[in-house]
Amino acid sequence: MHKLYTRAGSGGFVVEAALEMAGVPYERVDVTKGVEPDDQFREVSPLGQVPAMVLPDGTAMTESAAIAQLISESYPYARLAPATDDAGRPDFLRWMAFQTSVIYPAILRIYYAPRYTTDPAGIEAVKAAAVAEVDRAFGIVDKALEGRQWLTGDHMSLADVYLLMVVCWHPEPRKAESAWPDIARVCAMLRDVPVIKDLNVRHELW
Ligand SMILES: N[C@@H](CCC(=O)N[C@@H](CS)C(=O)NCC(=O)O)C(=O)O
């Protein structure tokens, strides 16, 4: 069985959504924020971060986007991502990578700002620059959504679920409604998907 190290409100959200949408049973291990990781968790996740997953064959994996993508490939019947020969595949790969390499790290700079400067007086500046970077990135995603239903075209994918998650982490979680209307539209559709709605009872993202 898959074993998922996660925490409410964390990047574990997209992985839990993927497993649940695919109907894959998994064991959830809740990792408490701020508590020094024990040796077993550190072995699975050297940075002590969630999500981290141990596959049924014992392989350990970190990185939310990589885990989500692996699940989509392992259970293609769930249609969590466009197939490799689908026209939506390049967009899927692009937006998963963009979100995990541009948006997620910028959000970490907001909430873990002291890690990103050796100057205590610079913390607020780190946060302000990170918010500006997140806003710029959401502007790019919003533009890409113009005239299309989902990030990859006509079918919802994990790239959209990832987007909902990172939008909810914005320090002004309702900003999408006024600033990024197409992102707000996609998020509204997702909040009505039963699995996502149920998952939010635990994650309280919105
Ligand atoms: N690149 C990683 C980032 C994971 C990450 O930063 N997770 C946060 C929670 S959302 C965490 O566990 N932070 C604890 C820490 O860094 O000490 C991913 O995409 O999974």
Summarize the amount of helix as a percent range. 40-55%
Mean pLDDT across all residues, rounded? 97
CATH topology of the largest domain: Glutathione S-transferase Yfyf (Class Pi), Chain A, domain 2
- The low-pLDDT segments are none
Oligomer: single chain
Count of structural domains: 2
Can you tell me the CATH class of the largest domain? Mainly Alpha
End-to-end distance, in Å? 30 Å
Heteromolecules bound: glutathione
User: Can you name the CATH architecture of the largest domain?
Assistant: Up-down Bundle
| Overall 3D form | globular
| Helical run tally | 9
Q: Give the ordered list of helices and strands.
A: EHEHEEHHHHHHH
Portion of residues in beta strands equals: 5-15%
Summarize this, please?
This protein is of the alpha+beta class and 206 residues long. It is built from nine helices and four strands, in the order βαβαββααααααα.
Write the layout of secondary structure elements.
Blueprint: E1 2-6, H1 12-21, E2 26-30, H2 39-44, E3 52-54, E4 60-62, H3 64-74, H4 89-111, H5 123-145, H6 158-168, H7 175-179, H8 181-191, H9 194-203
Parallel strand pairs: 1-2
Antiparallel strand pairs: 1-3, 3-4
Helix pairs in contact: 1-3, 1-6, 1-9, 4-5, 4-6, 6-8
The structure holds glutathione.
Glutathione (GSH) binds next to helix 3 and helix 4.
